[in-house]
Amino acid sequence: MTVEEKKKFSWDNTVMAALYIVVFALTIMSSLPWLWLMSIDAHWFSTMYSWYTFASTFVAGIALITLYVVFLKNNGLLPAVNKEHLHDLGKFMFAFSIFWTYLWFSQFMLIWYSNQPEETIYFVNRIGNSARQSPYSGIFWFMLVINFVGPILIFMSRDSKRNYTIVTFVSILILFGHWLDFYQMVFPAISPDKVPSIAFDMGIALFFVGLIMLLVARTLSKYPLTVENHPFAKESVIHHT
């Protein structure tokens, strides 16, 4: 492929990515959380719910990308990737963990402050109140520690975001933490008095993890991972943070 063809290919990909962002914003970020998740709590509503689920999905996506980058780098398939790129991925996970926590606290604080029964029922089922204990309170607070306290404390320093082992650990922690977040979004509404066995749902999650790994590995094996004649290739190689 010639340089001009590569430039056109890159431009077409950029346009398609911009269009996909719009589609993603109108589906994953807004409509689908309302239809799939918030409708489970039929008498509850929150205007921040879509932002909250979007932030959770986004930071989990960055964590998954990081795991792929580390794995491919360790297998010699991304020679141009260095600690500068890893540092950027760490900063994204750090920043969007804070953004997710900001949305979590805003939703929680506003509902707690207004104390309206049609809103507080959501948190009564998850953390309980003076009249009722919730079996999900431990999961609820544990999820907050994993998704906020863990990434903030570990990624506070610059060196930790440039360490492959630490970044890998935090990426796995974030993925598990946000899976647990979605778990507590669903089950307190359909089984408020008893926590179902988490093993079955964890098995389903691991099945999809394996399926994603299989499909991505097959796709990566068909194409070169280092793009030639890309208009921004040089900037990526000499990237410095």
TrEMBL record:
<protein>
    <recommendedName>
        <fullName>Quinol:cytochrome C oxidoreductase</fullName>
    </recommendedName>
</protein>
<feature type="transmembrane region" description="Helical">
    <location>
        <begin position="134"/>
        <end position="154"/>
    </location>
</feature>
<keyword id="KW-1133">Transmembrane helix</keyword>
<keyword id="KW-0472">Membrane</keyword>
<feature type="transmembrane region" description="Helical">
    <location>
        <begin position="92"/>
        <end position="114"/>
    </location>
</feature>
<feature type="transmembrane region" description="Helical">
    <location>
        <begin position="15"/>
        <end position="37"/>
    </location>
</feature>
<feature type="transmembrane region" description="Helical">
    <location>
        <begin position="49"/>
        <end position="71"/>
    </location>
</feature>
<feature type="transmembrane region" description="Helical">
    <location>
        <begin position="198"/>
        <end position="217"/>
    </location>
</feature>
<feature type="transmembrane region" description="Helical">
    <location>
        <begin position="166"/>
        <end position="186"/>
    </location>
</feature>
<keyword id="KW-0812">Transmembrane</keyword>
